[in-house]
Design brief:
408 residues, mainly alpha
């Protein structure tokens, strides 16, 4: 078996089992790495074991026991280790398999423990289960890397020191964890839809995984309209994937995309899910965002886009979920639906507040409106600012092209 493939497919489940046993994220992560290193040597000579996952768990567990004995902490962990000895060596066969038909979703619900702040739940889950880097998480939450790293350290310490149980939740526990779980899935999709770094704009495997998890969530919780709305939102955005980047890898703006390349079946499904969620009384953030995405997806031409209604929906979203990022999107909708000057004024106010000083999309949005207004010198300055903050190569190339246009 390819160890890299095993790591990609099973590491989250193995790690969560070890954390449940040891009650210590750092120790579990370190022991798992040691188990992988041992596997590289032993499997090459002895062959791959019948149950590679159980082998890795057992090896990591034994190394942890040795470490704890050396540090004289073994007595405090003896009962926990004994309780997990049988379960960690075998695949799950209990009732949770019926409640959670999907391994990764089970892990996400397990990681999203309500004893932690929601942001800490989400960050830990993204890192532990989904393999999202600390840097990518910090960008998702718009905080400095050092700040997010410290929050993760504090969250792990709280789990260890407070003895927070790391167990699969019961059906009754699910509602308390749902908001965090939805956010995890949404952020997985976002990282795939607009990669925060690297040489590709879209990480299709992440988008596909998030949509798959969204479908499983809807099956698990059919009475939760916000789960439906989240799936709708992802489907509607993903429907444009083939039109967002040119054949030579260059970013294409929404208004310039070939709408014949949009996936109409996804748009139809996403629109239907949005309408179903709204009929169920959902007016949460995902339902409103899905409604906005549906208006974009169902507009036959850029001119047919109902920007005024989109701006109104952003008003609702901003009222219920205050966020400077939503303010940026609302300002663009206002610019396109009412006047460029009004939208630019809203972005200028945001810039003066300094809330999104390091958010490149604020500066690229200002640059675009300034360009449309013919204020090319100011647009060039804004493009340079956005370019300095962008970490994705595709976006960098796009911003350089636009900067060249306004400078010429």
């Amino acid at each position: 078996m390819d160890l890299e493939k095993l790591h990609r497919e099973e590491s989250g489940r193995i790690l969560s089992t070890l954390i449940g046993l040891l009650g210590d994220f750092d120790l579990a992560e370190e022991m798992l790495q040691e188990a992988y290193a041992t596997a590289l040597q032993k499997w090459a000579t002895d062959g791959v074991p019948t149950n590679p996952r159980a082998w890795l768990i057992s090896t990591a567990r034994n190394r942890a026991i040795d470490r704890l004995r050396r540090e004289r902490r073994f007595d405090t962990k003896r009962e926990e280790i004994a309780r997990y000895t049988e379960s960690t060596a075998q695949p799950h066969t209990d009732a949770t398999d019926e409640m959670f038909p999907d391994d990764r979703l089970r892990l996400i619900f397990t990681c999203c423990h309500p004893a932690l702040p929601t942001e800490a739940q989400v960050a830990l889950t993204l890192q532990t289960v989904c393999g999202v880097t600390t840097e990518e998480i910090s960008r998702a939450f718009l905080v400095p890397l050092a700040t997010m790293a410290q929050r993760l350290v504090r969250a792990k310490r709280k789990i260890r020191d407070a003895g927070i149980p790391y167990r699969v939740p019961t059906l009754e526990d699910l509602p308390d964890r749902l908001d965090a779980v939805l956010l995890v899935v949404y952020l997985i999709f976002n990282e795939g839809y607009m990669a925060s770094s690297g040489d590709a704009l879209i990480r299709r495997e992440l988008c596909a995984e998030a949509i798959r998890l969204g479908r499983v969530l809807c099956q698990l919780l059919p009475q939760q309209p916000e789960a439906q709305a989240l799936l709708a939102l992802m489907l509607l955005h993903d429907s444009r994937r083939d039109a967002r980047v040119s054949s030579d890898g260059e970013l294409i703006l929404l208004e310039e995309q070939d709408r014949n390349l949009w996936h109409r079946e996804q748009i139809k499904e996403g629109t239907g899910l949005t309408e179903s969620a709204l009929r169920s009384g959902a007016a949460g953030a995902y339902a409103v965002q899905a409604s906005i995405a549906a208006l974009h997806a169902n507009a036959k031409t850029p001119k047919n886009t109902d920007w005024r209604q989109i701006a109104g929906l952003y008003d609702i979203l901003l009222r219920d979920n205050p966020s400077p990022v939503i303010e940026v999107n609302r300002a663009v909708a206002v610019a396109m639906g009412r006047s460029l000057e009004e939208g630019l004024g809203l972005l200028d106010e945001l810039e003066k507040r300094g809330a999104l000083a390091e958010f490149h999309l604020l500066h690229s949005a200002r640059a675009d409106l300034l360009r449309r207004l013919g204020r090319t010198g100011e647009a060039a300055d804004a493009y340079r600012r956005a370019l300095a903050l962008t970490t994705n190569d595709v976006e960098r190339r796009f911003l350089r092209r636009m900067l060249t246009k306004v400078e010429s």
